[in-house]
Specification:
Elements lengths: L1 H35 L3 H15 L4 H18 L2 H17 L3 H18 L2 H17 L3 H18 L2 H17 L3 H18 L2 H17 L3 H18 L2 H18 L2 H18 L2 H17 L3 H18 L2 H17 L3 H18 L2 H17 L3 H18 L2 H17 L3 H18 L2 H17 L3 H18 L2 H18 L2 H18 L2 H164 L5 H41 L3 E4 H16 L3 E8 L4 E4 L1 H19 L5 E11 L2 E8 L28 H12 L3 E7 L3 E9 L2
Parallel strand pairs: 2-4
Antiparallel strand pairs: 1-3, 4-5, 5-7, 6-7
Helix pairs in contact: 1-2, 2-3, 2-4, 3-4, 4-5, 5-6, 6-7, 7-8, 8-9, 9-10, 10-11, 10-12, 11-12, 12-13, 13-14, 14-15, 15-16, 15-26, 16-17, 16-18, 17-18, 18-19, 18-20, 19-20, 20-21, 20-22, 21-22, 22-23, 22-24, 23-24, 24-25, 26-27, 26-28, 27-28, 27-29, 28-29, 29-30
């Protein structure tokens, strides 16, 4: 046996190492890509890939990757990355079932996705938000967010997202008992699966449609849908889904009252689930088979299966489903008129459901407790319990359970002989039951309403409702409805003098009553519970015996350890004595060696002290040199700014010279023409043609002078504003687009030699309260950098400057279509004195831009470029 286990252990160890190695290789590979990535957005996307890869296997590692992506996103101003981070946090909290925190995280994510215009991501966020609220049992708000997700997905035609939305909405409406609305969404989902040819999705959808049709009493159509799903799963060899399909078909036969068929399909489902070793679904099957026996009135066998189900739930630690087991057992005892035991199990179920905060199941237990109170004629408590349940079910919108609550409240009024109130409540319940198509509840309501009319001596109505109840109860196999209807019919026929029919229905009533409640059943149930309790006590005793044996073995082992320890201690003392003697001799030798080492250390210490003094002196010299270099750098940067301003002055002066010269020439010719015309006027020799020519000349000269003076004034105004802003660095309000145009006009003398087109994509309404001089220096350096370096050896070029305000942040984008920056230089462009053409610049232009954006404006700037496709600068600047 040992020889067999060793190879198996080695195989398992090798497989574990291989899986770990594969995971580690994947992490290492993505980490290398992250280090090589030049763009922050690429790094963030890679970190997000790592998060997704590990969220289901290692949440701690996944969270680490998410945090790294978040820090990098904040540093680079990448809002999409920040939104993704909150989305990741939400998914982590959902995985941990921390739905309240997940709700807060996903709300932050949705807000950012909407600001970014990412509709697909926002829809996914609303879907997660709806799921969190569903888990928190806020069903109304949950539906609202699910519909919001659906609305967006329909607008953007997101097929995958639509499938998810239709599926969730169908599920929730089904849970709320709104089966027609649920079916509407499942049919839409079916159309999508048919369009994409997804056979498994189609089969799942047919199962969901069948379940809703069954709840509406459309059993033939329900069976058709479930049968189609089963055939598909058999072809796909999907055992898990085959078991689910068998279970659905069994439920349809259960509702039809075809109990042999129902058991047959439940047993098929049970067989598959037992072979798969899935204890939880095995317990589900046992519970369903128990329901069959409960509906048939075979309470002992139902109780036995419920006890088995409890055993599974206790071993699996499934507290929620254990609460359901206790509730079902309470129902059996209630139907057997054993109210003491029923109350005990209901209270155990309620304690679990309160502990877990399960409102819907709590409401179900309130109904059970109300039934016990009703049987004890404690009508006040019964009404309190029923109304508590009704309030919860109205909040969740579960129409099936609302019907049950109303039926029970009507029963309280009936017992108190408040027949009109009972009828009103039954009428409301019947309307809802017919709306959702619940035949079982309709049958019970007809039977109860017939009984009310019987008490009110309205025998014709009593007969009508009694016959309806008996017929519907027979169709659905609901013995309780048949029994109650038979009792109503027997009383009604007797009151009308039809004693033969009254006798027949009285026999039916007694037969059904005896099948549901008889002494043999009571004895059988008591025996089965005693056997269940005995088995539990036996298990406890076996565990206690096992513990005692383990304690005895531990005591024997302890005594052996004490004995072995004593022997070991004696041997150890001998060894220690030998070691002490040996240590003493070695210590003498060590002392001699230590003295020699101390002398050597003293010598080394003196040398180190000397070296330390020398290092301190060198450090001081280096600090002086560094301070000198910093001062020199600041002087160079200031010189660069002044040089730029000086170049601006020279360019503007040269540019102004032309229009001023033209104006002077035009103005100087005008007096000569005027004197000549005046002489002709004095000598009375002026002609019409000469005067007309003079007027034309004067008009043209005036227009020429005016146009050139206006051009000069505009340039002077732009230059004056830009130069003042650059020199004073004062904060003021200014229109961004208008000021940018001023800066570009002031740069015209520097760029007119190139065919450069500058496109402004800036909203005229954007107004900033900031430092215009800083913006002037940024734009000046970027434009001149494009002209000198980007458009070198190019005949023409295009510069695009775009800006938009997002919340309280200005996003300024600059792009040229020049030759671009080589990839190896991207990380160095903002370094001082770095330039690819030392003849054309000092290398301080972009360094000045970087300092202004980060220090003066408290913003951030990034650069990206592709060879021969130009360069882009992106700036994020806070605004007031």
């Amino acid at each position: 046996m040992i020889k067999v286990r060793i190879p198996l252990f080695l195989c398992f160890l090798l497989m574990t190492i291989q899986v770990f190695t594969q995971d580690q290789v994947k992490v290492d590979s993505l980490e290398k890509l992250i280090r090589k990535a030049k763009s922050d957005t690429v790094k963030i996307d890679l970190l997000n890939q790592l998060f997704i890869a590990y969220i289901n296997s290692d949440t701690s590692l996944a969270r680490d990757f998410a945090n790294r992506a978040f820090r990098l996103s904040r540093k680079s101003g990448y809002n999409k990355g920040i939104a993704d981070y909150y989305n990741h946090l939400a998914n982590l909290n959902v995985a941990r079932e921390n739905y309240r925190q997940a709700r807060n995280n996903i709300q932050q994510s949705i807000d950012m996705y909407e600001d970014l215009g990412d509709q697909k991501a926002a829809a996914g966020g609303y879907q997660v938000l709806g799921y969190c609220l569903f888990k928190l049992q806020d069903y109304h708000l949950s539906l609202e967010y699910y519909h919001e997700a659906l609305k967006i997905r329909e607008q953007i035609r997101d097929t995958i997202g639509l499938k998810e939305s239709y599926s969730y909405l169908g599920f929730i409406y089904n849970r709320r008992g709104n089966f027609p609305q649920a079916l509407d969404y499942y049919y839409k989902l079916l159309d999508l699966y048919e369009a994409t040819g997804d056979r498994k999705g189609l089969a799942d959808c047919y199962n969901s449609i069948g379940w809703n049709l069954c709840n509406q009493g459309e059993y033939t159509q329900a069976l058709t849908n479930h049968q189609y799903a089963l055939e598909t799963f058999e072809q796909l060899d999907d055992s898990i889904q085959m078991a689910a399909a068998y279970n659905y078909i069994g439920i349809v036969h259960l509702d039809l009252g075809n109990y042999p068929k129902a058991i047959e399909y439940f047993q098929k489902s049970l067989g598959i689930r037992e072979s798969l070793g899935d204890s939880s679904t095995v317990a589900d099957c046992l519970n369903n088979i128990g329901l069959i026996y409960e509906h048939q009135g075979d309470y002992p066998r139902a109780l036995e299966l419920y006890f088995k189900t409890c055993d599974y739930r206790e071993k699996l630690g499934e507290r929620s489903r254990l609460g359901l087991c206790y509730h079902n057992i309470g129902n059996i005892y209630y139907k057997m008129d054993d109210t003491a035991r029923a109350l005990n199990y209901y209270e155990q179920a309620l304690a679990i459901r309160k502990e877990l905060g399960e409102k819907g199941p709590m409401a179900g237990t309130f109904i059970g407790l109300g039934n016990v109170n009703l049987d004890k004629e404690d009508y006040s408590r019964a009404l309190d319990n029923y109304r508590n349940a009704l309030e919860i079910f109205r909040e969740s919108g579960d129409k099936t359970q609302i019907v049950i609550c109303l039926l029970n409240i009507g029963m309280v009024n009936f017992r108190q002989e408040n027949y009109p109130a009972a009828l009103d409540i039954y009428e409301e319940a019947l309307r809802i039951a017919e709306e959702i198509g619940s035949i079982r509840r309709i049958a019970l309501l007809h039977a109860h309403m017939g009984n009310v009319y019987l008490k009110m001596n309205e025998y014709n109505k009593a007969l009508a409702y009694g016959l309806k109840g008996y017929k519907r109860g027979s169709e659905a196999g609901v013995k309780e409805a048949m029994r109650d209807a038979a009792e109503t019919l027997a009383g009604s026929y007797a009151a009308k003098g039809y004693y033969q029919q009254a006798y027949e229905y009285h026999v039916i009533f007694k037969t059904l009553s005896d099948s549901l409640l008889n002494a043999e059943n009571i004895r059988d149930i008591t025996a089965r519970e005693n056997r269940y309790q005995f088995e539990k006590e036996k298990q406890v005793m076996e565990l206690e015996n096992l513990k005692r044996e383990e304690l005895h073995a531990a005591e024997v082992k302890k005594q052996q350890l004490v004995r072995n320890a004593f022997i070991g201690a004696f041997i150890l003392m001998i060894i220690i004595a030998a070691l002490i003697l040996r240590s003493y001799r070695q210590k003498q030798k060590a002392n001699i060696a230590l003295q020699e080492k101390n002398a050597y250390i003293s010598q080394q210490k003196e040398e180190i002290e000397a070296q330390k003094d020398e290092i301190e002196q060198q450090k001081e010299e280096l600090q002086i040199t560094l301070d000198h270099l910093k001062n020199t750098q600041e002087q160079l940067i200031q010189s660069e700014k002044l040089a730029a301003l000086g170049g601006l002055v020279a360019g503007v002066a040269h540019e102004i010279n032309t229009p001023v010269g033209i104006s002077v020439t035009a103005a100087s010719s005008l007096p000569e023409e005027t004197s000549r015309m005046a002489a002709q006027y004095v000598s009375h020799k002026i002609s019409r043609a000469a005067f007309k020519e003079y007027l034309n000349t004067a008009n043209q000269s005036a227009k020429l002078i005016l146009a050139n003076m206006e051009r000069t004034a505009t340039m002077v105004q732009s230059f004056k504003q830009v130069s003042v802003d650059q020199s004073t660095e004062q904060q003021r309000k200014f229109k961004l687009k208008e000021y940018t145009e001023d800066v570009i006009r002031s740069l015209y003398p520097r760029i007119k030699g190139k065919k450069v087109e500058i496109i402004l994509e800036i909203d005229e309404k954007i107004e900033l309260n900031s430092y215009p001089g800083a913006f002037s220096q940024i734009l000046t350096n970027l434009v001149l950098n494009s002209v000198v370096h980007g458009f070198e050896d190019m005949k023409q070029g295009t510069i695009t400057i775009a800006a938009q305000v997002n919340r309280k942040e200005l996003m300024l984008a600059y792009h040229d279509n020049g030759k671009g920056i080589p990839e190896k230089h991207i990380d160095k462009v903002f370094d001082p004195f770095f330039t690819t053409n030392k003849k054309a610049g000092t290398g301080l232009g972009l360094h000045i831009v970087y300092n202004i954006v980060n220090q003066r404006l408290n913003g951030s700037i990034t650069c990206s470029s592709e060879k021969e496709k130009g360069v882009s600068f992106r700036m994020n600047i806070p605004v007031q």
